[in-house]
Amino acid sequence: MADLSEDSTIEWEAAQWVACRMGGEAFDEAGFDAWLAGDARRKPLFDTMWRRVMGADMDVALGAYRQRRRARHVALASAAGLLLACTGGYAAWPSVELFLAQPRHYASAEGGIREVVLEDGTRLTLAGGADIRVRYTGYDRVVELTQGTVFADVAHDARRPFRIDAGKARITDLGTRFEVSSNPVAVRVTVESGAVRLGANSWFGDRMDLSADQVAILTGSELSRIANVGAGGVARWRHEWVEYRDVPLSQVVYDLEGVSPLRIRIADEKLANRRVSGRVRLTDPVRQIDNLSVIHDFTITRHDGAIFLSSGKP
């Protein structure tokens, strides 16, 4: 039988450190640091696995182990020893069960809204071309948001944490209703009630707890708070059409950005404070911005993955 390659040994070890991190046992910080220091390839591999948690990298590592589990090689013995030492043998089972769970796929059409009720009663509202994959086990409830926007009304289950992974962000529910908006540049989280924990989907990222009406954005590895929303200001797009009466343009733009494929930025404060009235379809942000530019005499430019609004015509 073929020996474990050096690469597959590192993959297996990285997978075990991921399992250690998720297993609920005391984590061996010194041992982990020593493992990272032993090979420059380990940290980026671990970080990639941790971001994906149970994605393709873990599949390769576990597959390599299953195919060679009868081999009596020092590399495999070392990896198995690591598993037993840090997880007590079976503590990694929740991670493995999550990996093996068959995901359920849901999506919303561009410009449309879709309601999804999950098996535990959790309600998800999708918009902005949202695409999600849902995996439930006896230990975890995980939603992967690959694009678009989702509003989650989470059913409480103390035994099974609920989280949403969106790009480089991880949002852990602490019993709440909240919105997650993901575009290629940033992830925005807004809490309607209860609390969530937002952080980088990585072992090495910061985390921030948010409560009702609070908003935060993760851009790359930078986590920052922005101004709170007012009462009724979370995920207004759920109503599709909203009637505005003498509100600042910045409020309408904030609501449109929730389902926009690109960030929307207002260049100056005077334009941001321009008063707006009328009926706006929030699920069609790009066209609505075009319409508003004609009515309120501002210029639209697109660059660096964002839409910029500035006073006057070009």
Automatic annotation (TrEMBL):
Signal peptide (from-to): none
InterPro entries, per database record: FecR, Ferrdict_sens_TM
Gene Ontology molecular-function annotations: sigma factor antagonist activity
Keywords: Membrane, Transmembrane, Transmembrane helix
Domain of life: Bacteria
Residues annotated as domain FecR protein: 106-197
Transmembrane region(s): 74-93
Pfam families: FecR (PF04773)
PANTHER family: PERIPLASMIC SIGNAL SENSOR AND SIGMA FACTOR ACTIVATOR FECR-RELATED, PROTEIN FECR
Name this polypeptide is given: Fec operon regulator FecR
Organism: Edaphosphingomonas haloaromaticamans
Organism lineage string: Bacteria, Pseudomonadati, Pseudomonadota, Alphaproteobacteria, Sphingomonadales
